[in-house]
Design a protein that fits this description.
By secondary structure, the chain is mainly alpha-helical. About 40% of the residues lie in helices and about 5% in strands. The longest helix is centred in the middle third of the chain and has 23 residues. It is extended, with a radius of gyration of 24 Å. The termini are far apart.
């Protein structure tokens, strides 16, 4: 994937052994027809760790890869600043730009992307937070330039402000980034939030949300009193044929209204 634009370029698939890779390549070529990924024609060929590393660190100047290890060379060119680092500040910041800048992804077009796409974006963000936390925790053992708590704060801020992420997903990001994430104030109800798409409206008091949680918990269909909202048996989104955030959100809103009508007096 091209880091500045996010466009898909070459894809590398790693195997446990050279033999496994050759067997997979042979299987691809035995079919005798063009390989396609959706409507896109693709070609498959053997690569190496060195080619993969070159693509992973495209801005590592004066660096070549031999048997998976970097080989740094000096340059005699007058305007060549030489090797500085494997990953630049710009590349690290670019990792969170897609989430930090809403116009880079049309989050508001909820009928145009699926819950699966949303969840994959969340998993990517969560993995980045976990990787960054691991690097920060090893700061005293391994020198990692450009890795700082400031970068973690920026990443958490970006992830927590993605409008498509669910309340539970935001809570998971907060917990993964602790103790830095613990400084972010969130309702404990987020940990057990029952909806995939519906979220709490900004500015609503915690008492109001807790009151609605109690109402939902009192519904006859609730099968457990151990969580604030209760537990209900319902068909999965896949079984209902729901895919986009818009479809699932509309279904959740209809279900919420129905449950409230069942519990609240008609006079309300």
């Amino acid at each position: 994937m091209d880091r500045p634009t996010g466009k898909t370029m070459d894809c590398f698939v790693e195997f446990f052994s050279q033999g496994d890779a050759q067997a997979a390549l042979k299987k691809c070529h035995v079919r005798g027809c063009q390989l396609r990924l959706g409507e896109r024609v693709v070609s498959v060929h053997m690569s190496s760790q060195d080619e993969l590393l070159k693509e992973l660190f495209p801005r590592a100047k004066n660096c070549t890869w031999e048997h998976g290890r970097p080989r740094i060379t000096e340059s005699t060119e007058p305007y060549n600043t030489g090797f500085k680092t494997f990953v630049t500040n710009e590349e690290l910041l670019q990792l969170v730009t897609w989430a930090d800048k809403p116009h880079r992804f049309p989050w508001f077009c909820v009928e145009r992307y699926t819950i699966k796409t949303r969840n994959e974006m969340f998993r990517t963000t969560l993995n980045l937070v976990n990787l960054l936390m691991n690097q920060l925790n090893r700061a005293n053992e391994v020198y990692t330039p450009n890795i700082s708590e400031t970068l973690l704060v920026d990443l958490l801020y970006a992830g927590l402000n993605v409008p498509a992420f669910s309340e539970q997903q935001r809570w998971a990001l907060r917990q993964a980034g602790s103790p830095v994430g613990a400084k972010v104030r969130m309702s404990p109800l987020a940990e057990v939030w029952p909806f995939e798409v519906l979220g709490r409206k900004a500015g609503i008091d915690e008492d109001v949300v807790q009151k609605y949680a109690q109402i939902l918990q009192s519904h006859p269909a609730n099968t457990s009193r151990e969580t604030p909202f209760g537990v209900w048996t319902a068909f999965s989104n896949e079984a209902l044929g729901l895919e986009t955030l818009g479809q699932i959100g509309a279904h959740e809103m209809e279900m919420l209204h129905s449950m409230l009508r069942d519990v609240l007096p008609e006079s309300l």
